[in-house]
Amino acid sequence: MIADAKPSLSKTPVFVAGVSGLLFGIGLVLAGMTQPSKVVGFLDFGGDWDPSLAFVMGGAILVFAPAQWWIRRREKPALASTFSMPPKAHITKPLLIGSSLFGIGWGLSGFCPGPAIVSLGALLPEALLFGGGMVAGFVLFQWVGTRAGIETKKL
Amino acid sequence: MEHFTPITSSLGGVLIGLSAALLFGLNGRIAGISGIAGRLVEKVPKGDIAWRFAFLGGLVVAGIGAAWLVPETIHMGISRSPAALVAAGLLVGFGTRMGGGCTSGHGVCGIGRLSTRSVVATLMFMATGAATVWIIRVLFGGVL
């Protein structure tokens, strides 16, 4: 039984999420994602290109793709009642516009959400400024997005 | 510019993949950081809150540990004004919620499960990110 975008609520073990977050954070640091200069170097295709971050994505996908295939053959996750998965198809305007805006902010700062939160833990001053903006962006979308009826899907 | 780091970057990627597999296999959740964090400003059901804080807390602890043990790994390395950083944060916060994901949710998990939406989203943010970096380098000399 695979349910689309139906979150499993109270049963979700919190400690697993904590371990997963810690592992994710260590991975980001080791990968070089907490160095915005490396991110900008990766996005600078026309300049002195640093392909390192392609290896981050490649390594992560090489592990996650077979893992999720194997996991989804089961009826449900080991510690929860349902899989919570966003839809795969439906290319929508919010998807295109939102992702484009995200890319501009990513290129502008070299931060995406994960590395920014890790760097917040390290009290990097730039991450504090970026993080403040990011939370304001979340709140802004919650106002504007809801008012304009923009779909926001569960992740 | 920077040193090419294929080995540590691949190993970091493998850890990220393992983390996402753990969260999906045990909790049934997709490790999409903008969604995990962004939905905390919405009305989410009571039982749907604690795991989000736990995951984000794990990220923060990784940052505390890195700042202590390997401080050189948390480093800007580029020059950006406070205004540019706040503006970038706004764009990333708003954009990832509107687009339903970021580098983790779309770029790793979505592509990993062959989601068309995620492939398209990733191409979009890579393209606009590259264009932004190009503009900053060519028009502003790499400083903003």
Structure characterization notes:
- The complex is a heterodimer of chains A (155) and B (144).
- Chain A is mainly α and 155 residues long.
- Chain A has one domain.
- Chain A has six helices and no strands.
- The two termini of chain A are 18 Å apart.
- Chain B has a domain at 78-144.
- Chain B is mostly helical.
- In chain B, helix 5 (103-112) packs across helix 6.
- Chain B is globular.
- Chain B contains six helices and no strands.
- Chain B starts with 5 loop residues before the first helix and ends with a helix.
- Helices cover 70% and strands 0% of the residues of chain B.
- The chains are: A mainly alpha (155), B mainly alpha (144).
- Chains A and B meet through helix 1, helix 2, helix 3, helix 4 and helix 5 of A and helix 1, helix 2, helix 3, helix 4 and helix 5 of B.
Task: Quickly list its features.
heterodimer; A: about 160 residues; mainly alpha; 6 helices; about 60% helix; about 0% strand; B: about 140 residues
Write the layout of secondary structure elements.
The complex is a heterodimer of chains A (about 160) and B (about 140).
Chain A lengths: L13 H18 L4 H8 L8 H21 L20 H17 L3 H9 L3 H23 L8
Chain B lengths: L5 H22 L5 H6 L11 H20 L12 H18 L3 H10 L3 H25 L4
Helix pairs in contact in B: 5-6
- Count the helices of chain B. How many? 6
The CA-CA distance between the termini of chain B, in Å, is 18 Å
Shape, principal axes of CA atoms of chain A: globular
Q: What characterizes the major β-sheet of chain A?
A: none
Strand content of chain B: under 5%
How large, in whole angstroms, is the Cα Rg of chain A?
Answer: 18 Å
Task: Considering residues with a beta carbon less than 8 A from a beta carbon on another chain, report the largest interface and each chain's count.
Answer: A-B, 128 and 124 residues
Order of helices and strands of chain A: HHHHHH
Q: Which term fits the overall shape of chain B?
A: globular
Structural class of chain A: mainly alpha
Q: How big a fraction of the residues of chain A is strand?
A: under 5%
Please tell me the overall pLDDT of chain A. Answer: 89
SSE order of chain B, as H and E?
HHHHHH
Domains counted in the coordinates of chain A: how many? 1
Number of helices of chain A: 6
How does the helix and strand content of chain B classify structurally? mainly alpha
Oligomerization status of the protein chains: heterodimer
- Helix share bin of chain B: over 70%
> Biggest sheet of chain B, in brief?
none
